[in-house]
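Supplementary material to the annual report.
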Amino acid sequence: MKLQRIAALTKKELKKTIREPAVLFMIFLFPIIFVFAFGASFGGVGGSQTVTYHIGVVNMDHESLMNASQTVLAALTDTKIINVQVYADNQTAQDDLSQGNVQAVMIIPSDFSQSLASYQAAPNNPAQWTNTTVSLYLDKGSLVATQAVPAIIQQTLTAIAGQSQQTRSPFQVQTASLVEVKTTSALDFIAPGMFTFASIFLIMMVAQSFTQDKENGMMKRIRITPTTPTEFMTSQVISYMSIALIQAALVFAMTYALGFRPSIGISTYVFAFTLILIFSVSTVGFGLITATIAKSAGAATGLSFLFVLPQLFLGTFVGASLSSGAQVAGKFIPSYYVTNALTSLFLRGTAITSSAIMLDFAVVSVSCVAILVVGVALYAKYYKV
Amino acid sequence: MDLFGNLHAMNKAELKERRNMLLTKMGLSEDAKRRAGKYSGGMKRRLSLILALISEPQIAFLDEPTVAMDPQSRHAVWDFLKELKKEEKTIVLTTHYMEEAEELCDRVGIINHGKLIILGTPKELISKNQVNNLEELFLKLTGRKIREET
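Predicted assembly:
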């Protein structure tokens, strides 16, 4: 394998991209304009995604005489919109929160029953109350969790104390994850999907590029040189990974300009960009599959939507608004795992070494390489590379 | 040109020298900076020839290298192919221009309906078949009926 050939072919592919105004628009301008239009339009708006909230509860209150915590759990369950999952310890609950399995974790303090009892004994004398704090950890990756869950918890606690909403209470709900108080906008929730969204359109570009090279005889010319199939394919992967990297940087710049500020470190950024780069490998694979079927560049554009649309609707920010069936279908496409991992990294602050991120990373890596292998095999079979 | 030179693993200096020489010979030096997509048909044919010969191959297969070229371009290509002959490079070319075959080729084969029907030096073929040139020979052997190319 000669680096000189790979570099020459990579340069050729990148030059071709730069020289085609339509391609430049689709790859770079379209995602930027889309992010800007979407971010500017909906950036400050909230939204509703689901009517059932999954909440983890760690019950530290083991008071035997008056188990008020059980009353709280029953009251939450009775709301019909809260799905309670009880955890034995905070660590396990936090792990599930960081992986997006629950949207909030509520810690019921050990003196909760005592506090309720003190209130009920002297409801009009706050000096007699045993004040306590119910800690609440929220999933920053869920718009509904940050907006709806604290209110529901507060309302439930107020109700079991038998108070009207206006009176004082010995229970204080402290949203622990809001130590760094942050208003989360719709842009924060769609931003991770935007990165995936931009890369997906590379499928169309790859398919067009390959069919154009077939049509104008470039592929034949390359075949009569000593270039090996490995060198050729390596150059293609490098080219489109480079484009994906630039795309991701531009999308990030635009989302940043619109106010997207994930609280993550450099290593997480590097990991996120690496994930996007690996995802771009699948776009070359899908592009090759499309180019195998398509007879012309025009046909390639249309056929590429067979792969673009499912990835777009089931695997980007759009997916969160789809039916549960569609969300399950999303689990069979790579873009879902990229968006999921980016959401965990950017919004939930999940560590890159966590099992959830590692699982997403593994699925993306394996599936993208498999798609590339299938694409190369099909293209090589029908059009010798 | 640089792409194909690099695909043939030519070194930078050698590639530059060869590229400049070919551009000059093919009369494309002044248009070297223009995009090939904007070239005329004849210029594209000449560029195509440069790409085929950039790596200085010992043997070259040229498929109608002067088709659609103006007389000046055609003669430039002929001169260049004659130079390659002098350098003892082997060239296999197909053409429908019999004067081109007569001018350039050491040996000429006429293929009719996919079969090689005659082979020899232009002089041999002309004298043996008692014709004035290869054009006459071609018509004599293949007939005057117009054929649709498929």
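The helical segments of chain B are 2-7, 12-25, 41-53, 71-86, 98-104, 122-128, 134-142.
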